[in-house]
Amino acid sequence: MEKKYSFIDTHSHIDMIEKITLEEVITNADQNNVTKIILPCAYPKDIDKISQIAASYPNIYAYLGVHPSEAKDWDDSLAEKIENEISFNKKIVGIGEIGLDYYWDKSFNAVQKEVFIKQIQLANKLNLPINIHDREAHKDCFDILTEYNKNSTVIMHCFSGSIEFAKECINAGFYIAIGGVVTFKNAVKMKEVAKGIPLERLLLETDAPYLTPVPYRGEENQPAYVKFVAEEIANLRKITVEEIALATSENAERIFNFQI
Ligand code: NI
User: Fold this and answer.
1) Rg of the chain, C-alpha, whole Å
2) pLDDT tens digits, one per residue of 33-70
3) Cα of 65 to ligand 1 centre, how many Å?
4) What's the 236 CA to ligand 1 centre distance in angstroms?
5) DSSP letters of the chain?
6) How many angstroms separate the alpha carbon of residue 163 from the centre of ligand 1?
7) Model's pTM, two decimal places?
8) Are the beta carbons of 64 and 41 closer than 8 angstroms?
9) CA 101–ligand 1 middle distance (angstroms)
10) C-alpha angle with apex 119: 113 to 120, nearest 5 degrees?
11) How far is the CA of 160 from the centre of ligand 1 (A)?
């Protein structure tokens, strides 16, 4: 019999996949040994929808939060709304995606920081992990996390820094989530990170529908493709895909403590 191992896609916008239905996304994931998918929230208007999707499908979990690019839409009643949602939906396993994005728009960095800090504090209050979006904001993200985060496990989603920054994050106790970019031929920095960090701090993700790994680069991404990420990391580390699957799934189980 074929050896059975499973993957957990720790960051996947399955609600944004357009070319196939949610049912097809889930079937494909299932057939490719993806046993759990965590759906992040980006927009305040999506909080109910994201929570609802997680509640409706057995293998779907979610983070609730507001993406840095949407920080201007934050208002403090959202913290209450998120807290309320979490109080009755056991499928919400973290706060995310939150952080800083200086790539798209630098004009409201101060607002981004303020909203980031508020959401870190919310996660701390609820004792939930935080899924971090850091785009061209490594230093500020790191400084805010080390200053304000008290008790939440930190996951650097779609890690895009150098191996030196990865090591700083590891030393601070953070986890590093790697996605499809690692399969790109020119992603030299990313390959170095995938090779150089301890397995017990590594998580897999797709960030679907974006950042589709080779050999489907350019097409729409989906959780089923997380295996290509795992295969590339396994090759780089000269270990088996099973070992990557086992270690990353164990890490995710430990961090998110899935209740149902
Ligand atoms: Ni995302």
Assistant:
1) 17
2) 999 999 999 999 999 999 999 999 999 999 999 999 99
3) 11
4) 25
5) -PPP--EEESS--GGG--SS-HHHHHHHHHHTTEEEEEE---SGGGHHHHHHHHHHSTTEEEEE---GGGGGG--THHHHHHHHHHHH-TTEEEEEEEEEETTT--TTHHHHHHHHHHHHHHHHHHT--EEEEEES-HHHHHHHHHHH-SSPPEEEET--S-HHHHHHHHHTT-EEEE-GGGGSTT-HHHHHHHHHS-GGGEEE---TTSSPPTTSTTS---GGGHHHHHHHHHHHHTS-HHHHHHHHHHHHHHHH----
6) 22
7) 0.97
8) yes
9) 12
10) 85
11) 13
Find out if CATH 3.20.20.140 is the number for domain 7-256: yes
| CA 12 / ligand 1 centre spacing (Å) | 7
pLDDT band at 1; cut points 50, 70, 90: very low
Q: What is the pLDDT of residues 128-151, one digit of tens each?
A: 999 999 999 999 999 999 999 999
Q: In percent, how much of the chain has pLDDT > 70?
A: 99
* Residue boundaries of the structural domains of the chain: 7-256
Evaluate if residue 2 carries a pLDDT over 80. no
pLDDT band at 108 (very low <50, low <70, confident <90, very high): very high
- The whole-chain average pLDDT of the chain stands at 97
What's the 2 CA to ligand 1 centre distance in angstroms?
Answer: 33
How remote is the CA of residue 94 from the centroid of ligand 1, in Å? 14
pLDDT at 126: 98
